[in-house]
Amino acid sequence: MIEAAPIPSSSFHALVGTAPGLLASAGHHAPSLSVTLTFAAVLVALILCLALEEKIHAKKSFIAGAFAMLSLMMAMVFGIEPGTAEVHVFEETLTIPIYIPAIDWGVIAIILGSSIFVDVTSKSGLFTWIAIRLTKASGGDPVRLLWFYGLMTVVFSAVLNNVTAMIIVGSLTGVSLRKLGREPMLLGFLLIEGLLTNVGGLLTLISSVPNIIVGTAAGISFMAFFVAAAPFVVLGTVVTLLMGARLFRIEPLRTEEERRAAAEQVAGFDENDGIESRGFFYFGAVMLGLFIVVIATTSVLPYVSELGMGYVALTFAVIMLARYKSSVDAYYRALDWDLLGFFAGLFIVINVMEHAQVLTLIGKGLAWVIGLGDTLGTGLVLVASAAFSSVTDNIPLAAMLAKILQQLGKPSDSPLWWSVVFGANLGGNLTPIGSASTLVAVTIMHKQGLKVSFSGFVVKALPYALVQIVLATLYVLLVLA
Protein backbone atom coordinates (compact mmCIF):
# COMPACT_ATOMS: atom_id res chain seq x y z
CA MET A 1 0.00 0.00 0.00
CA ILE A 2 2.40 2.70 1.18
CA GLU A 3 5.64 3.00 -0.70
CA ALA A 4 7.85 5.75 -2.09
CA ALA A 5 10.20 4.06 -4.48
CA PRO A 6 13.04 3.43 -4.76
CA ILE A 7 14.13 3.02 -1.13
CA PRO A 8 17.72 2.59 0.05
CA SER A 9 19.36 -0.42 1.61
CA SER A 10 18.23 0.54 5.11
CA SER A 11 14.69 -0.39 4.12
CA PHE A 12 15.50 -3.80 2.76
CA HIS A 13 14.05 -5.17 5.99
CA ALA A 14 11.11 -5.72 3.69
CA LEU A 15 13.04 -8.62 2.20
CA VAL A 16 13.02 -10.46 5.49
CA GLY A 17 9.45 -9.57 6.38
CA THR A 18 10.13 -7.54 9.54
CA ALA A 19 10.92 -3.95 10.31
CA PRO A 20 14.60 -2.96 10.38
CA GLY A 21 16.13 -5.68 12.47
CA LEU A 22 14.81 -4.20 15.69
CA LEU A 23 11.17 -5.17 15.63
CA ALA A 24 11.76 -8.85 16.23
CA SER A 25 9.42 -10.00 18.91
CA ALA A 26 11.68 -12.56 20.54
CA GLY A 27 9.99 -14.07 23.54
CA HIS A 28 6.53 -13.21 22.28
CA HIS A 29 4.38 -16.11 21.16
CA ALA A 30 2.75 -16.39 17.75
CA PRO A 31 -0.91 -15.38 17.96
CA SER A 32 -3.74 -17.84 17.57
CA LEU A 33 -6.06 -17.71 14.58
CA SER A 34 -8.78 -16.05 16.66
CA VAL A 35 -6.37 -13.30 17.72
CA THR A 36 -5.25 -12.78 14.12
CA LEU A 37 -8.87 -12.48 12.99
CA THR A 38 -9.52 -9.98 15.80
CA PHE A 39 -6.71 -7.76 14.52
CA ALA A 40 -7.96 -8.20 10.96
CA ALA A 41 -11.31 -6.86 12.15
CA VAL A 42 -9.51 -3.81 13.60
CA LEU A 43 -7.90 -3.19 10.19
CA VAL A 44 -11.32 -3.42 8.51
CA ALA A 45 -12.73 -0.99 11.09
CA LEU A 46 -9.92 1.49 10.31
CA ILE A 47 -10.74 1.34 6.60
CA LEU A 48 -14.45 1.85 7.29
CA CYS A 49 -13.76 4.87 9.52
CA LEU A 50 -11.55 6.40 6.83
CA ALA A 51 -14.32 5.82 4.30
CA LEU A 52 -16.75 7.61 6.64
CA GLU A 53 -14.29 10.40 7.47
CA GLU A 54 -16.75 13.17 6.66
CA LYS A 55 -19.69 11.45 8.37
CA ILE A 56 -17.87 11.09 11.70
CA HIS A 57 -16.32 14.58 11.40
CA ALA A 58 -12.77 13.43 12.09
CA LYS A 59 -9.50 14.14 10.32
CA LYS A 60 -7.65 11.17 8.88
CA SER A 61 -4.65 11.78 11.17
CA PHE A 62 -6.90 11.48 14.23
CA ILE A 63 -8.52 8.28 12.90
CA ALA A 64 -5.16 6.66 12.12
CA GLY A 65 -3.73 7.85 15.44
CA ALA A 66 -6.64 6.45 17.43
CA PHE A 67 -6.35 3.06 15.74
CA ALA A 68 -2.57 3.12 16.20
CA MET A 69 -3.01 3.55 19.97
CA LEU A 70 -5.71 0.85 20.06
CA SER A 71 -3.57 -1.58 18.03
CA LEU A 72 -0.51 -1.06 20.24
CA MET A 73 -2.48 -1.63 23.44
CA MET A 74 -4.08 -4.76 21.98
CA ALA A 75 -0.63 -6.01 20.96
CA MET A 76 0.53 -5.64 24.57
CA VAL A 77 -2.59 -7.34 25.97
CA PHE A 78 -2.28 -10.32 23.61
CA GLY A 79 1.52 -10.46 24.01
CA ILE A 80 2.31 -10.45 20.31
CA GLU A 81 4.74 -7.52 20.31
CA PRO A 82 7.30 -6.17 22.77
CA GLY A 83 6.75 -2.72 24.23
CA THR A 84 10.29 -1.63 23.46
CA ALA A 85 12.97 -2.30 20.87
CA GLU A 86 16.76 -2.30 21.13
CA VAL A 87 18.76 -0.27 18.64
CA HIS A 88 22.50 -0.81 18.28
CA VAL A 89 24.30 2.39 17.25
CA PHE A 90 28.10 2.77 17.40
CA GLU A 91 28.40 -0.08 19.92
CA GLU A 92 25.77 1.57 22.09
CA THR A 93 22.47 -0.12 22.82
CA LEU A 94 19.45 2.15 23.01
CA THR A 95 16.01 1.10 24.20
CA ILE A 96 13.14 2.90 22.45
CA PRO A 97 9.36 2.46 22.31
CA ILE A 98 8.35 -0.10 19.68
CA TYR A 99 6.19 2.40 17.78
CA ILE A 100 9.21 4.57 16.88
CA PRO A 101 10.87 2.05 14.50
CA ALA A 102 7.42 0.92 13.33
CA ILE A 103 7.12 4.19 11.39
CA ASP A 104 8.84 4.31 7.99
CA TRP A 105 10.71 7.53 8.60
CA GLY A 106 12.11 7.41 5.06
CA VAL A 107 8.64 8.04 3.60
CA ILE A 108 7.93 10.73 6.20
CA ALA A 109 11.22 12.46 5.34
CA ILE A 110 10.53 12.33 1.60
CA ILE A 111 7.10 13.94 1.99
CA LEU A 112 8.37 16.52 4.49
CA GLY A 113 11.48 17.47 2.51
CA SER A 114 9.85 17.43 -0.92
CA SER A 115 6.91 19.53 0.27
CA ILE A 116 9.17 22.22 1.74
CA PHE A 117 11.50 22.13 -1.29
CA VAL A 118 8.63 22.56 -3.75
CA ASP A 119 6.97 25.25 -1.63
CA VAL A 120 10.14 27.36 -1.37
CA THR A 121 11.18 26.76 -4.99
CA SER A 122 7.76 27.93 -6.15
CA LYS A 123 8.56 31.36 -4.65
CA SER A 124 11.29 31.76 -7.27
CA GLY A 125 8.67 31.72 -10.03
CA LEU A 126 10.22 28.58 -11.54
CA PHE A 127 7.10 26.41 -11.40
CA THR A 128 4.98 29.20 -12.80
CA TRP A 129 7.47 29.57 -15.64
CA ILE A 130 7.45 25.82 -16.41
CA ALA A 131 3.65 25.63 -16.19
CA ILE A 132 3.12 28.58 -18.52
CA ARG A 133 5.65 27.23 -21.02
CA LEU A 134 3.79 23.91 -21.05
CA THR A 135 0.48 25.72 -21.34
CA LYS A 136 1.77 27.68 -24.32
CA ALA A 137 3.09 24.48 -25.92
CA SER A 138 -0.40 23.00 -25.58
CA GLY A 139 -1.90 25.92 -27.46
CA GLY A 140 -4.49 26.17 -24.70
CA ASP A 141 -5.97 22.78 -25.63
CA PRO A 142 -7.02 21.00 -22.39
CA VAL A 143 -6.58 17.50 -23.82
CA ARG A 144 -3.10 18.23 -25.10
CA LEU A 145 -2.20 19.72 -21.71
CA LEU A 146 -3.56 16.59 -19.99
CA TRP A 147 -1.27 14.43 -22.12
CA PHE A 148 1.73 16.64 -21.35
CA TYR A 149 1.19 16.38 -17.62
CA GLY A 150 0.26 12.71 -17.78
CA LEU A 151 3.46 11.76 -19.57
CA MET A 152 5.50 13.94 -17.21
CA THR A 153 3.91 12.14 -14.25
CA VAL A 154 4.81 8.69 -15.61
CA VAL A 155 8.41 9.65 -16.39
CA PHE A 156 8.94 11.37 -13.03
CA SER A 157 7.40 8.42 -11.17
CA ALA A 158 9.72 6.02 -12.97
CA VAL A 159 12.97 7.92 -12.41
CA LEU A 160 12.26 9.73 -9.11
CA ASN A 161 9.57 8.38 -6.78
CA ASN A 162 5.82 8.66 -7.02
CA VAL A 163 5.44 11.00 -4.04
CA THR A 164 7.89 13.59 -5.37
CA ALA A 165 6.40 13.25 -8.86
CA MET A 166 2.90 13.96 -7.56
CA ILE A 167 4.00 16.95 -5.49
CA ILE A 168 5.83 18.59 -8.42
CA VAL A 169 3.33 17.80 -11.19
CA GLY A 170 0.35 18.64 -8.99
CA SER A 171 1.80 22.08 -8.26
CA LEU A 172 2.39 22.77 -11.96
CA THR A 173 -1.10 21.60 -12.94
CA GLY A 174 -2.81 24.06 -10.65
CA VAL A 175 -0.88 26.97 -12.17
CA SER A 176 -1.67 25.95 -15.77
CA LEU A 177 -5.40 25.45 -15.28
CA ARG A 178 -5.82 28.68 -13.34
CA LYS A 179 -4.08 30.61 -16.10
CA LEU A 180 -6.41 29.04 -18.67
CA GLY A 181 -9.48 29.64 -16.52
CA ARG A 182 -10.12 25.87 -16.47
CA GLU A 183 -10.24 25.34 -12.70
CA PRO A 184 -13.25 22.94 -12.94
CA MET A 185 -10.93 20.47 -14.70
CA LEU A 186 -8.44 20.42 -11.82
CA LEU A 187 -10.07 17.47 -10.04
CA GLY A 188 -9.83 15.31 -13.17
CA PHE A 189 -6.22 16.29 -13.85
CA LEU A 190 -5.07 15.60 -10.29
CA LEU A 191 -6.90 12.28 -10.03
CA ILE A 192 -5.48 11.05 -13.33
CA GLU A 193 -1.98 12.14 -12.34
CA GLY A 194 -2.31 10.34 -9.01
CA LEU A 195 -3.31 7.12 -10.77
CA LEU A 196 -0.49 7.45 -13.30
CA THR A 197 2.13 7.62 -10.55
CA ASN A 198 1.51 3.94 -9.83
CA VAL A 199 1.54 3.08 -13.54
CA GLY A 200 4.89 4.84 -13.91
CA GLY A 201 6.13 2.92 -10.86
CA LEU A 202 6.02 -0.25 -12.98
CA LEU A 203 8.50 0.94 -15.59
CA THR A 204 11.85 -0.14 -14.15
CA LEU A 205 13.26 -2.56 -11.60
CA ILE A 206 14.04 0.30 -9.21
CA SER A 207 10.86 2.34 -9.72
CA SER A 208 9.16 0.84 -6.64
CA VAL A 209 10.13 -1.31 -3.68
CA PRO A 210 7.91 -4.29 -4.71
CA ASN A 211 9.73 -4.25 -8.06
CA ILE A 212 13.09 -4.48 -6.27
CA ILE A 213 11.93 -7.24 -3.93
CA VAL A 214 10.28 -9.44 -6.57
CA GLY A 215 12.82 -8.72 -9.32
CA THR A 216 15.73 -9.58 -7.02
CA ALA A 217 14.08 -12.77 -5.77
CA ALA A 218 13.24 -13.89 -9.32
CA GLY A 219 16.63 -12.94 -10.74
CA ILE A 220 15.17 -10.52 -13.32
CA SER A 221 17.77 -8.09 -14.70
CA PHE A 222 17.17 -4.34 -14.98
CA MET A 223 16.92 -4.43 -18.77
CA ALA A 224 14.74 -7.56 -18.83
CA PHE A 225 12.37 -5.92 -16.37
CA PHE A 226 12.18 -2.75 -18.46
CA VAL A 227 11.57 -4.64 -21.71
CA ALA A 228 8.80 -6.71 -20.11
CA ALA A 229 7.07 -3.84 -18.28
CA ALA A 230 7.45 -0.94 -20.74
CA PRO A 231 4.75 -2.03 -23.24
CA PHE A 232 2.16 -2.26 -20.46
CA VAL A 233 3.21 1.11 -19.00
CA VAL A 234 2.67 2.67 -22.44
CA LEU A 235 -0.70 0.90 -22.80
CA GLY A 236 -1.79 1.74 -19.26
CA THR A 237 -0.82 5.39 -19.67
CA VAL A 238 -2.67 5.80 -22.97
CA VAL A 239 -5.82 4.04 -21.72
CA THR A 240 -5.85 6.03 -18.46
CA LEU A 241 -5.48 9.35 -20.28
CA LEU A 242 -8.17 8.46 -22.83
CA MET A 243 -10.55 7.35 -20.08
CA GLY A 244 -9.76 10.43 -18.02
CA ALA A 245 -10.49 12.81 -20.87
CA ARG A 246 -13.79 11.04 -21.54
CA LEU A 247 -15.05 10.50 -17.99
CA PHE A 248 -14.12 14.01 -16.82
CA ARG A 249 -15.31 15.56 -20.09
CA ILE A 250 -11.96 17.14 -20.86
CA GLU A 251 -12.58 17.94 -24.50
CA PRO A 252 -10.20 19.21 -27.19
CA LEU A 253 -10.64 22.49 -29.02
CA ARG A 254 -12.68 21.50 -32.06
CA THR A 255 -13.24 24.57 -34.20
CA GLU A 256 -10.74 26.88 -35.81
CA GLU A 257 -12.29 29.76 -33.91
CA GLU A 258 -11.76 28.01 -30.56
CA ARG A 259 -8.15 27.24 -31.42
CA ARG A 260 -7.53 30.81 -32.56
CA ALA A 261 -9.06 32.24 -29.38
CA ALA A 262 -7.02 29.87 -27.22
CA ALA A 263 -3.83 30.70 -29.11
CA GLU A 264 -4.46 34.42 -28.54
CA GLN A 265 -5.13 33.73 -24.87
CA VAL A 266 -1.92 31.79 -24.24
CA ALA A 267 0.10 34.22 -26.33
CA GLY A 268 -0.79 36.86 -23.76
CA PHE A 269 0.68 34.78 -20.90
CA ASP A 270 4.03 35.99 -19.67
CA GLU A 271 6.06 33.25 -18.03
CA ASN A 272 8.28 35.89 -16.43
CA ASP A 273 5.45 37.50 -14.44
CA GLY A 274 6.10 35.50 -11.29
CA ILE A 275 9.86 36.03 -11.29
CA GLU A 276 10.79 38.61 -8.66
CA SER A 277 14.51 37.85 -8.60
CA ARG A 278 16.25 36.54 -11.69
CA GLY A 279 19.12 35.25 -9.56
CA PHE A 280 16.80 33.25 -7.29
CA PHE A 281 14.98 31.96 -10.36
CA TYR A 282 18.18 30.55 -11.87
CA PHE A 283 19.22 29.19 -8.49
CA GLY A 284 15.85 27.43 -8.16
CA ALA A 285 16.20 26.00 -11.68
CA VAL A 286 19.66 24.62 -10.93
CA MET A 287 18.50 23.17 -7.61
CA LEU A 288 15.45 21.53 -9.19
CA GLY A 289 17.68 19.91 -11.82
CA LEU A 290 20.11 18.71 -9.16
CA PHE A 291 17.24 17.48 -7.00
CA ILE A 292 15.88 15.34 -9.82
CA VAL A 293 19.33 13.95 -10.69
CA VAL A 294 20.29 13.17 -7.09
CA ILE A 295 16.93 11.58 -6.25
CA ALA A 296 17.12 9.46 -9.41
CA THR A 297 20.66 8.26 -8.61
CA THR A 298 20.40 7.98 -4.81
CA SER A 299 20.78 4.20 -4.85
CA VAL A 300 24.20 4.37 -6.57
CA LEU A 301 25.74 7.47 -4.97
CA PRO A 302 28.43 6.81 -2.35
CA TYR A 303 27.40 7.72 1.22
CA VAL A 304 24.09 9.18 0.01
CA SER A 305 22.78 5.69 -0.82
CA GLU A 306 23.10 4.74 2.84
CA LEU A 307 21.25 7.87 4.00
CA GLY A 308 18.42 7.45 1.47
CA MET A 309 16.04 9.65 -0.46
CA GLY A 310 14.55 11.13 2.69
CA TYR A 311 17.95 12.64 3.50
CA VAL A 312 18.22 14.01 -0.04
CA ALA A 313 14.77 15.63 0.15
CA LEU A 314 15.49 17.19 3.55
CA THR A 315 18.92 18.43 2.45
CA PHE A 316 17.52 20.21 -0.59
CA ALA A 317 14.73 21.66 1.56
CA VAL A 318 17.31 23.12 3.97
CA ILE A 319 19.34 24.57 1.09
CA MET A 320 16.28 26.31 -0.35
CA LEU A 321 15.19 27.54 3.08
CA ALA A 322 18.51 29.35 3.45
CA ARG A 323 17.03 32.25 1.47
CA TYR A 324 14.22 32.61 4.02
CA LYS A 325 16.22 31.58 7.09
CA SER A 326 14.66 34.29 9.26
CA SER A 327 11.09 33.25 8.43
CA VAL A 328 11.29 29.47 7.98
CA ASP A 329 8.48 29.03 10.52
CA ALA A 330 6.03 30.24 7.87
CA TYR A 331 6.91 27.22 5.70
CA TYR A 332 6.65 24.88 8.68
CA ARG A 333 3.14 26.16 9.41
CA ALA A 334 2.18 25.60 5.76
CA LEU A 335 3.05 21.88 5.92
CA ASP A 336 0.21 19.39 5.82
CA TRP A 337 0.67 17.96 9.30
CA ASP A 338 -2.57 16.01 8.96
CA LEU A 339 -1.01 14.03 6.11
CA LEU A 340 2.21 13.35 8.02
CA GLY A 341 0.30 12.38 11.15
CA PHE A 342 -1.88 10.03 9.14
CA PHE A 343 1.12 8.23 7.68
CA ALA A 344 2.76 7.86 11.09
CA GLY A 345 -0.39 6.34 12.57
CA LEU A 346 -0.98 4.10 9.58
CA PHE A 347 2.57 2.73 9.66
CA ILE A 348 2.12 1.79 13.31
CA VAL A 349 -1.17 0.01 12.60
CA ILE A 350 0.31 -1.93 9.67
CA ASN A 351 3.34 -2.93 11.75
CA VAL A 352 1.08 -4.33 14.46
CA MET A 353 -0.88 -6.19 11.78
CA GLU A 354 2.36 -7.83 10.64
CA HIS A 355 3.10 -9.05 14.18
CA ALA A 356 -0.51 -10.17 14.54
CA GLN A 357 0.06 -12.41 11.49
CA VAL A 358 -2.68 -10.68 9.48
CA LEU A 359 -0.38 -10.41 6.46
CA THR A 360 0.78 -13.99 6.99
CA LEU A 361 -2.85 -15.10 6.87
CA ILE A 362 -3.26 -13.22 3.60
CA GLY A 363 -0.06 -14.83 2.30
CA LYS A 364 -1.30 -18.32 3.14
CA GLY A 365 -4.50 -17.66 1.22
CA LEU A 366 -2.53 -16.45 -1.77
CA ALA A 367 -0.21 -19.47 -1.54
CA TRP A 368 -3.26 -21.70 -1.95
CA VAL A 369 -4.31 -19.63 -4.96
CA ILE A 370 -0.84 -20.04 -6.50
CA GLY A 371 -1.29 -23.79 -6.27
CA LEU A 372 -4.28 -23.61 -8.64
CA GLY A 373 -1.93 -23.55 -11.64
CA ASP A 374 -0.02 -21.01 -13.70
CA THR A 375 -2.95 -19.64 -15.69
CA LEU A 376 -5.75 -19.47 -13.12
CA GLY A 377 -3.32 -18.93 -10.26
CA THR A 378 -1.54 -16.08 -12.05
CA GLY A 379 -4.73 -14.16 -12.75
CA LEU A 380 -6.12 -14.65 -9.24
CA VAL A 381 -2.81 -13.75 -7.57
CA LEU A 382 -2.63 -10.49 -9.53
CA VAL A 383 -6.18 -9.51 -8.60
CA ALA A 384 -5.78 -10.59 -4.97
CA SER A 385 -2.41 -8.80 -4.65
CA ALA A 386 -4.01 -5.62 -5.97
CA ALA A 387 -6.95 -5.92 -3.55
CA PHE A 388 -4.77 -6.53 -0.49
CA SER A 389 -2.22 -3.88 -1.53
CA SER A 390 -4.99 -1.28 -1.56
CA VAL A 391 -5.51 -1.66 2.21
CA THR A 392 -2.26 -3.15 3.56
CA ASP A 393 1.44 -2.52 3.05
CA ASN A 394 2.49 -3.83 -0.36
CA ILE A 395 6.15 -4.16 0.70
CA PRO A 396 5.88 -7.06 3.20
CA LEU A 397 3.11 -8.56 1.06
CA ALA A 398 5.42 -8.58 -1.99
CA ALA A 399 8.27 -9.97 0.14
CA MET A 400 6.05 -12.75 1.48
CA LEU A 401 4.81 -13.77 -1.96
CA ALA A 402 8.34 -13.64 -3.37
CA LYS A 403 9.45 -16.10 -0.67
CA ILE A 404 6.55 -18.40 -1.47
CA LEU A 405 7.40 -18.38 -5.18
CA GLN A 406 11.06 -19.07 -4.37
CA GLN A 407 10.13 -22.01 -2.16
CA LEU A 408 7.97 -23.39 -4.97
CA GLY A 409 10.99 -23.14 -7.29
CA LYS A 410 9.25 -20.92 -9.83
CA PRO A 411 11.64 -19.94 -12.66
CA SER A 412 12.34 -16.27 -13.41
CA ASP A 413 10.18 -16.43 -16.54
CA SER A 414 7.10 -17.61 -14.63
CA PRO A 415 4.18 -15.16 -15.04
CA LEU A 416 3.48 -15.53 -11.31
CA TRP A 417 6.36 -13.16 -10.52
CA TRP A 418 4.80 -10.52 -12.76
CA SER A 419 1.36 -11.03 -11.24
CA VAL A 420 2.82 -9.97 -7.88
CA VAL A 421 4.63 -6.96 -9.40
CA PHE A 422 1.59 -5.66 -11.29
CA GLY A 423 -0.85 -6.39 -8.47
CA ALA A 424 1.27 -4.75 -5.77
CA ASN A 425 1.73 -1.57 -7.81
CA LEU A 426 -1.71 -1.15 -9.38
CA GLY A 427 -3.53 -1.98 -6.15
CA GLY A 428 -2.48 1.48 -5.00
CA ASN A 429 -5.06 2.99 -7.35
CA LEU A 430 -8.06 1.35 -5.68
CA THR A 431 -8.16 3.54 -2.56
CA PRO A 432 -6.65 6.86 -1.46
CA ILE A 433 -4.55 5.00 1.12
CA GLY A 434 -3.42 2.48 -1.50
CA SER A 435 -0.20 4.41 -2.12
CA ALA A 436 1.53 7.48 -0.74
CA SER A 437 1.17 9.30 -4.06
CA THR A 438 -2.62 8.88 -4.31
CA LEU A 439 -2.96 10.21 -0.78
CA VAL A 440 -0.73 13.16 -1.71
CA ALA A 441 -2.98 13.73 -4.74
CA VAL A 442 -6.04 13.88 -2.47
CA THR A 443 -4.20 16.27 -0.17
CA ILE A 444 -3.42 18.58 -3.10
CA MET A 445 -7.11 18.43 -4.09
CA HIS A 446 -8.08 19.56 -0.59
CA LYS A 447 -5.56 22.41 -0.73
CA GLN A 448 -7.17 23.53 -3.99
CA GLY A 449 -10.59 23.57 -2.32
CA LEU A 450 -11.73 20.30 -3.92
CA LYS A 451 -13.44 18.16 -1.29
CA VAL A 452 -12.85 14.48 -2.03
CA SER A 453 -13.64 11.92 0.66
CA PHE A 454 -12.28 8.38 0.94
CA SER A 455 -15.41 6.92 -0.65
CA GLY A 456 -15.55 9.73 -3.20
CA PHE A 457 -12.04 8.87 -4.36
CA VAL A 458 -12.87 5.17 -4.59
CA VAL A 459 -15.95 5.86 -6.70
CA LYS A 460 -14.02 8.08 -9.10
CA ALA A 461 -10.86 5.94 -9.27
CA LEU A 462 -12.50 2.50 -9.41
CA PRO A 463 -13.23 2.47 -13.19
CA TYR A 464 -9.60 3.30 -13.99
CA ALA A 465 -8.20 0.84 -11.45
CA LEU A 466 -10.43 -2.01 -12.67
CA VAL A 467 -9.51 -1.41 -16.31
CA GLN A 468 -5.79 -1.23 -15.41
CA ILE A 469 -5.98 -4.47 -13.41
CA VAL A 470 -7.92 -6.28 -16.16
CA LEU A 471 -5.43 -5.10 -18.79
CA ALA A 472 -2.52 -6.12 -16.56
CA THR A 473 -4.02 -9.59 -16.06
CA LEU A 474 -4.48 -10.07 -19.80
CA TYR A 475 -1.01 -8.70 -20.49
CA VAL A 476 0.64 -11.06 -18.01
CA LEU A 477 -1.32 -14.09 -19.24
CA LEU A 478 -1.11 -13.41 -22.98
CA VAL A 479 2.24 -11.63 -23.35
CA LEU A 480 4.48 -12.52 -20.42
CA ALA A 481 3.28 -16.11 -19.86
Low-confidence stretches: 4-27
Strand runs, count: 2
**How many DSSP helices?**
22
Biggest sheet features: 2 strands, antiparallel
- Which percent bin holds the helix content? 55-70%
Strand arrangement within the widest β-sheet reads 1-2
Order of helices and strands: HHEEHHHHHHHHHHHHHHHHHHHH
Tell me the β content.
under 5%
Termini Cα gap: 26 Å
Mean pLDDT: 86
What Rg, in angstroms, do the CA atoms define?
22 Å
From the spread of the alpha carbons, the general shape counts as globular
Question: Which structural class do you get from the secondary structure elements?
Answer: mainly alpha
List key phrases describing it.
two-stranded antiparallel sheet; single chain; 481 residues; mainly alpha
Question: Can you characterise this structure?
Answer:
This protein has 481 residues and is mostly helical. It has a domain at 103-125 and 275-335. It has 22 helices and 2 strands. The protein has helices spanning 33-51, 60-78, 99-102, 105-122, 126-137, 142-159, 162-180, 186-200, 209-218, 222-247, 256-267, 278-296, 304-307, 309-321, 328-334, 337-355, 358-370, 374-389, 394-407, 415-426, 436-447, 454-480, and strands at residues 84-89, 92-97. A two-stranded antiparallel sheet has the order 1-2. A hairpin with a 2-residue loop joins strand 1 (84-89) and strand 2 (92-97). Helix 4 (105-122) runs parallel beside helix 7, helix 6 (142-159) runs antiparallel to helix 10 (222-247) and helix 10 packs across helix 22. The longest helix is centred in the C-terminal third of the chain and has 27 residues, at 454-480.
